[in-house]
Amino acid sequence: MAAINTAAPLDFADPATPWQCLGWVTTEGGLFKVEEESKDVEAAGSLEPIRTLMTKSTKSLQVTFLEGLNPLVRSLYDNVPVTALQPVDGIASYAMPDKPSDLRYAFVFDTMDGDKRMRLYMPNGKVVERGDEQPQTADVMPVQLTFRFYKGTTLPAVKRSIDYGDIDVSEFFTEGGTPSP
């Protein structure tokens, strides 16, 4: 994650400063959702709509992080700025807000399978739902968060990049961009 509207990393290498790592997520990955609403416009006397207007397109991602004590994950779950988790004499103590704050950041989520990679870049997102928290004595502490993404100042809500690695996908495309049969 980084400050809201931070530019996307240029390649598939690990993002450098100003990006900060939220840690590992479950091997199932995240659940990316696109919810769309539309409204049909009908003409007088017509039985079929003459036009369909897209009224809403919401993009969200539900992720279970495995590092619930990572200060960045903790700040997102507790809805406090990460600076609130800075320890004094090794201990961080802070009040969780009674009224939710509108803390927004830019996010990058990478999926890897060998040399193939997929990246979702979101310039403007925030946590909108928090799953149950169950502190454990194991080496992982899962924390589930659901993010919603909004358009950036000049960018779409989500940009997807795919690196196919060494796989030749040219047979899926023709000169004009039309899928081959």
Beta-strand residue percentage: 35-45%
Q: How many strand units?
A: 7
C-alpha geometry: globular
Q: Give the integer mean of the pLDDT values.
A: 87
Report low-confidence residues grouped into runs of 5 or more: none
Distance between the termini: 41 Å
Total helical elements:
1
Secondary-structure element order, N to C: EEEHEEEE
Largest sheet: 7 strands, antiparallel
Radius of gyration equals 20 Å
Output the structural class: mainly beta
Give helix % range: under 10%
Describe the protein's architecture and organization:
The structure is a single chain. Strands 1, 2, 3, 4, 5, 6 and 7 form a 7-stranded antiparallel β-sheet that branches. The protein has 181 residues and is mainly beta. It has one helix at 71-78, and strands spanning 2-3, 31-42, 49-65, 105-113, 116-130, 143-149, 159-163. Helix content is 4%, strand content 37%.
Topology:
Layout: E1 2-3, E2 31-42, E3 49-65, H1 71-78, E4 105-113, E5 116-130, E6 143-149, E7 159-163
Antiparallel strand pairs: 1-4, 2-3, 3-6, 4-5, 5-6, 5-7
